[in-house]
Design goal:
Helix content is 79%, strand content 0%. The chain is mainly alpha-helical and 402 residues long. It folds into two domains: 190 residues, MFS general substrate transporter like domains (Growth Hormone, Chain: A, Up-down Bundle); 177 residues, MFS general substrate transporter like domains (Growth Hormone, Chain: A). The longest helix is centred in the C-terminal third of the chain and has 30 residues. It is globular. It starts with a helix and ends in a 19-residue tail after the last helix.
Length: 402
């Protein structure tokens, strides 16, 4: 590794470590990956249907769309440090308040909206802003190492939570997670998260740059969210539709979790060495092939390949959006730009699973849905050819580091 790249890690490792801990305890990780464990307990206690419970995630996703935009602008105005610290504290309190849920569904849905707006500052846009201030040559790898906290959380939180629920109850598990945010993530963020001191005079924010690259990335983000989250949410159901037993389907689904972690770090490494849009194009060919293979036949090799392809692409997606935002747009508008693109991804993520469910209900199988997902993934991959070389866009500016 060249001296400059090595120096980046020597100087920037606290930001990467702080971001890793932050994403592990982020609003996205805790809410999404704990919900499946809490849902059966809530259904038993309150008598709610799975549809009524799932609507809470719909409320959460649409709240995150708005929160991502708001916090992106706040980061550009006030800097990521104050935003992360305030949001982490508020999220700890908001998540803990979930333990006060009653039979009121309106209160339950309101708590999920509250968690989104309180914890919006713990989304990847905040932690990646620290990384782009410290890293240039190794930015892709640093983003991967930072944002892999989500994948690690997804891998180890479920068994821990299940053990707490089995020994005590779901309310105790909620309070344990809230305590983790307040007593682990918050102090680590306070100690480790700093942006690079900037010797140059602060530049005035030039605001959003609504050029061709921006609009291409908006559409790319929406389509990516649709096919990635749609395929992952329905993956077990697709396998069971092919006659796979629930236990075996869960085993294949675990391959996705491992692949997410590998994708985060491995693709980050490649982004530093190859033209990023081409990396994305070839990465997305994997899910395209997986959709077509799943539609054509049923074999364990096909199931394993699909899980691997979906996990790698999902693991890399948020890193890719962060990386491309930092290369195509001025640093002083990074928060607002990434916030909008992350919200676009969430729009796709909120609607992709619903679309697949409706298509299954209408057709009685996933055959047409898989063909449509292949078309969506192909379109997202081809959109990367509309992205210009970095040098014809805004250079990576010194920016405003707070």
């Amino acid at each position: 590794m060249p001296d400059q790249a090595l120096n980046e890690f020597k100087q920037g490792w606290p930001a990467a470590l702080g971001g890793f801990v932050g994403t592990f305890f982020s609003v996205g990780t805790l809410v999404i990956y704990s919900f499946g464990l809490f849902a059966p307990e809530l259904a038993k206690e309150f008598g709610w249907s799975r549809g009524e419970l799932s609507f809470a995630l719909t409320v959460f996703n649409y709240s995150i769309i708005v929160a991502g935009i708001i916090f992106g602008f706040l980061i550009d105005r006030h800097g990521p440090r104050v935003v992360v610290l305030a949001s982490t504290l508020l999220f700890a309190l908001a998540y803990g308040s979930l333990s006060l849920a009653t039979e009121s569904k309106a209160l339950f849905y309101a708590l999920f909206a509250l968690m989104a707006f309180a914890g919006g500052g713990t989304l990847p846009v905040s932690y990646s802003r620290f990384i782009i201030s410290w890293f240039d040559r190794q930015r892709g790898l640093a983003l991967g190492l930072t944002l892999v906290g989500t994948g690690v959380g997804a891998a180890i939180l479920p068994p821990i939570l299940q053990a707490i629920i089995s020994a005590y109850d779901w309310r105790t598990a909620v309070l344990v997670l809230a305590a983790g945010v307040g007593f682990i993530s918050l102090p680590r963020s306070f100690v480790l998260l700093r942006t690079r001191p900037n010797a140059k005079a602060a530049a005035k924010s030039s605001g959003l740059v609504l050029n061709r690259a921006f609009w291409v990335l908006v559409v790319f983000s929406i389509l990516s969210g649709m096919f990635l989250i749609g395929s992952i949410i329905h993956f077990v159901s697709i396998l069971q539709d092919r006659g796979v037993t629930p236990d075996r389907a869960a085993l294949f689904a675990s391959v996705i979790g491992i692949s997410v972690i590998v994708g985060r770090i491995g693709v980050g490494f490649l982004l530093d060495r190859l033209f990023a849009p081409r990396v994305v194009f070839f990465l997305f060919l994997g899910p395209v092939a997986a959709f077509l293979i799943l539609r054509a036949g049923s074999s364990e090799a096909a199931f394993f390949f699909a899980a691997l392809a979906f996990g790698l692409a999902q693991g890399a997606e948020i890193d890719i959006i962060a990386y491309l935002t930092s290369r195509y747009f001025p640093k002083e508008a990074y928060g607002a730009t990434y916030g909008l693109l992350f919200s676009a991804f969430t729009v796709g993520a909120a609607n992709g699973p619903l679309m697949l469910g409706l298509l299954y209900d209408r057709n009685g199988d996933y055959a047409f849905a898989l063909l449509l997902l292949a078309a969506i993934a192909s379109t997202a991959a081809l959109l990367t050819f509309l992205l210009p070389r970095f040098e014809v866009q805004h250079a990576v500016s010194p920016g405003i580091d707070h």
